[in-house]
Amino acid sequence: MNEQDVFVLADRALERVVQQIQDVQWDMDMPATFARRDTDHVPTLRTIIGYHASDDAWVPDMLAGRTMDEAGKDKFGGDLLGDDPKAAFAAIVDKACAAAAQLDDLERTVHCSFGDYPAREYLWQINGFRGIRAWEIAKIIGVDPTLPDDLVQGLWDELSPVADAWRKFGVFAAAIPVADDAPLMQRLLGLTGRDPQ
After folding, report:
1. Domains of the chain, start order
2. Model's pTM, two decimal places?
3. Cα separation of 18 and 134, whole Å?
4. With the CA atoms of 89, 68, 59 and 107 taken in that order, what torsion angle do they form, in degrees rounded to the nearest 10?
5. What mean pLDDT do residues 94-114 have?
6. N or C: which end of the chain has fewer CB within 10 A?
């Protein structure tokens, strides 16, 4: 399975979770673990989904090799979710998935705000972020957090070789020990510092 396939699986998994958010849940405070590093403010669920909407909205430009200046730094500023957040999020995911499916060069330089990376590595970063976040949000809103087996395998294949290096940069918390014969989903969660229980 290639990186683009994993992206589509991860993005669709997150979208499926978003579609299950109840109207009364949008304004709920998220756990402290969702606070961004630059603030101690605990965000709402809508803030977190809005962040993912913005991140996803950039995917077509990033995969096309455009810099943020070329695309327009403020292109996706403000509230992208509007009055119908589920529909807005789904439309953004559709565009991001289409861009990933059309990517023809995994070595193309992607110009992130934090540096330049080959498209392959950019996809590793965002695939893991989306896939694990789908599990986390599902647990918080009380829906089935099970990720599709092919997504779990794809994330494992991408993340297991780099997890320890990323841990040193603070991407993942300390690994949580999980039995070698545990289901792959549990091993993936433990690898990324999440308690599968």
Report:
1. 3-159 (1.20.120.450)
2. 0.92
3. 8
4. -170
5. 93
6. C
